[in-house]
Every structure is written in C-alpha cells, then in structure tokens.
Amino acid sequence: MIRVLLVDDQPLIRSGFRALLDLEDDIQVVSEAADGEGGLALIKEHLPDVALIDIQMPVMDGIEATRRIAADRALAGVHVVMLTNYGMDEYVYEALRAGAAGFLVKDIVPEDLLHAVRVAARGDALLAPSITRKLIHRYVTQPLPTATGAALTELTSREREAVALVAQGLSNDQIADHMVISPMTAKTHINRAMTKLHARDRAQLVVLAYESGLVAPRNL
Q1: CA angle 76, 165, 147 (to 5 degrees)
Q2: I need a surface site. Which of 42, 83, 185, 199 has the fewest CB within 10 A?
Q3: What global pTM score does this model have?
Q4: What are phi and psi of 18, to 5 degrees?
Q5: In the predicted model, is pLDDT for residue 81 greater than 80?
Q6: pLDDT of residue 144
C-alpha cells in the first residue's frame, strides 16, 4: 500500500486528489494539510511514502517544507512531489534543489497523477527528458559548487556513465541494457553515486549531472 499525504491550501485541489487516489486499491491518503507547517507536522506523524506538496502556501511554503523534510534523517523514506500551477514557474528548480523528487502541474490528467505517485513511491525521479532540458537551459547558469565538483572526482567511470544515463531519463533496466550489465548492478552504481554526491534521490542526481557538465543539454 502506497501511503500519500496531501499538502495544499486549496480545499478543492485536496478533495479532488484525495477522491481520485482513494479509489485505487494500492494507494491510501493518510492525511492532508492546508499549509507547509501543518503538513510537516503530519508528515512526521504519519511517515507517508509520498507527500504531494504545493509550492506556494501560507505560513510555510512548499520549498521550505521540502528542505526540512530532506534535512531530517527520520524522513528519508518520504518522497516529495511538488504541485504547481505552471509547468515551468520560477520555483521548480529551487524545489528540486531543496530535495523534491519531481513536480506535477495541478491540471494533470488522472492517469498521469496515479502513475506519478507510483513512480515517486519507487524512489524514481519525475523528470521527463524534455522537462529536464528546459530546466537546465533556464536555470543552470552558475558554476558547479566546489564541494560537488570534488565529489565528482570520486565517481568511478561506470558510476559516471550510469549518472549520465539517469540524467537522460533512462530507467534502471534501460541503463543496464545500455551498459551491458544486470539491473541490480546498474542500481548499485546509481546508489553509490548518490551516496558520494550526497544526492537525496534521482531527481537531485539529474540536477548535479547537468550542473557539473557531465551531461550537456545540447547533446540530448
């Protein structure tokens, strides 16, 4: 059972999402909140698999709530998916840097919402290659932080190759096929790279891959 917690200041959004998610046999909405502060308290209480959090809310916005979730080791199993009214608003990149696993536009069709929740619960990033390219072209303009650059040198050649393929939107099975290795070995390369780069999840790994120049948007 995938346990979901909703955090949005619009009651209609929460009720609509809840009604849809609760219809599924493998998904359960455990609670909901109208602001980031209340949402954070409920997340600590319920420890959901997925938290759907609005970016812009009163009291505490979604980005700050996500940042606090990412910093709390007790919440390491909570995968945050940000909700936004616009597919490419100015907050998306900051949300990913804060620790979000991805983002959804609120007018998403029901089938895509259900798929996104299941993908997030598995720990995969909700970043299609086309969205990733737009994010990088628009937001990645600063040099890579020194600490991250140093960490990249610790990656093996196979780990670097796996990270580059993650950034292109490939699944573990596709990465395994490309590298001619087993899916378990591909997952091991990715997990080790995440540990070395201090990436919370695959979404942050994608961001780091582009920031470091390991993958160039123009080549995708």
Answers
A1: 55
A2: 185
A3: 0.67
A4: -65, -45
A5: yes
A6: 47
In the DSSP assignment, the letter for residue 110 is: H
Distances (CA, A) of 69 to 63, 65, 66, 74, 158: 10, 6, 5, 9, 31
In this prediction, residue 132 carries a pLDDT of: 54
DSSP conformation letters of 153-219: TTS-HHHHHHHHHHHTT--HHHHHHHHTS-HHHHHHHHHHHHHHHT-SSHHHHHHHHHHTTSS-GGG
Residue 34 has pLDDT above 70, yes or no: yes
Query: What is the identity of the amino acid at 71?
Result: A
How do the residues of the chain divide into helix, strand and coil, expressed in percent and rounded to 5? Answer: 55, 15, 35
* Residue located via tokens 């606090």: 68
- Report whether 53 contacts 65 (CB < 8 A): yes
Chain-centre distance for alpha carbon 121 = 10
Is-contact 206 166, C-beta < 8 A? Answer: yes
- The predicted pLDDT at position 141 comes to 47
The closest of 104, 92, 103 to 136, measured between CA atoms, is 92
Cα angle, residue 103 at apex, residues 179 and 122 outer, rounded to 5°: 50
Phi, psi of 110 (to 5 degrees): -55, -45
Contacts 24+ apart (CB under 8 A), 131-137: 131/87, 132/167, 132/169, 132/206, 132/210, 132/220, 133/217, 133/220, 134/88, 135/88, 135/92, 135/93, 135/96, 135/207, 136/210, 136/217, 137/217
Place of tokens 């409920």: 42
